[in-house]
Amino acid sequence: MNGEAPLPGLLERHGDVLLRVAARSIDRGLESAGPLPIDVEAYAPELRASRAAFVTLKRNGRLRGCIGSTRARRPLVQDVAINARAAAFRDPRFKPLTPEESHDLAISLSVLAPPQPMTVATEDDLLTQLRPGVDGLILRHGGARAVFLPVVWHSFPEPRDFFRQLKTKAGLAPDAWSPEFRLARFTTEETGMGDSRDASPDL
């Protein structure tokens, strides 16, 4: 399922609602309750469409969790709720979020356009095709897999560094290359950091 690309301004129109859904989903996890129930039909049509999203959590400017979907499998509002809970409690790089940490937690969202497979012959070929600051990148090789959102360009602005760090994230050597690499790029629409816990459907 490829899902739908985010329409221009989607998060400008509905970002606050999705941030509140993400925050409520995390709060429910802190209460050891089940997943946040989502009445999909209560939300705006754009939020009911099948789209993929990442939820990023930060504390004091440092990453605290980031989990998302690269393929659209469910309504956007539901994807945000599920991935927010996973980012808080199931990111293997971090211990589960505690109630004390939740008070200064910043939440941001990235809604993905459907990934586009790339045809490249060499690493240099890939690097000439990548658009710094625009493209996110998915790498698959055997059982290895890693994703960088476009925002990662802020940390690694040079295409070669960007790709080598992605390979490292996948557990591969920075200079590794294989004709079996499967690569796909995507764009996103993103919110700024925010946090709100008073969610109501955007009808």
How would you portray this structure in words?
The structure is a single chain. The chain has about 200 residues and is an alpha+beta fold. It has 2 domains: about 10-115, Hypothetical protein ph0010, domain 1 (Glycoprotein, Type 4 Pilin, 2-Layer Sandwich); about 115-185, Hypothetical protein ph0010, domain 2 (Dna Ligase, domain 1, 2-Layer Sandwich), CATH 3.30.1490. It contains 6 helices and 8 strands. It has helices at about 10-30, 45-50, 75-90, 100, 125-130, 160-170, and strands spanning about 50-60, 60-70, 105-110, 115, 135-140, 145-150, 180-185, 190. The strands form 2 sheets. Strands 2-1-3-8 form a 4-stranded antiparallel sheet, covered by helices on one side. Residues about 195-203 have low confidence and may be disordered.
Give the N-to-C terminal Cα separation.
Answer: 26 Å
Unreliably modeled segments? 195-203
Number of helices: 6
The CATH H-level superfamily of the largest domain is Hypothetical protein ph0010, domain 1
Mean pLDDT: 91
Number of domains: 2
Order the strands across the largest sheet as they lie in space. Answer: 2-1-3-8
Examine the secondary-structure arrangement and name the CATH architecture of the largest domain.
Answer: 2-Layer Sandwich
Annotation keywords:
single chain, 203 residues, alpha+beta, Glycoprotein, Type 4 Pilin, 2 domains, 4-stranded antiparallel sheet, 6 helices, 8 strands
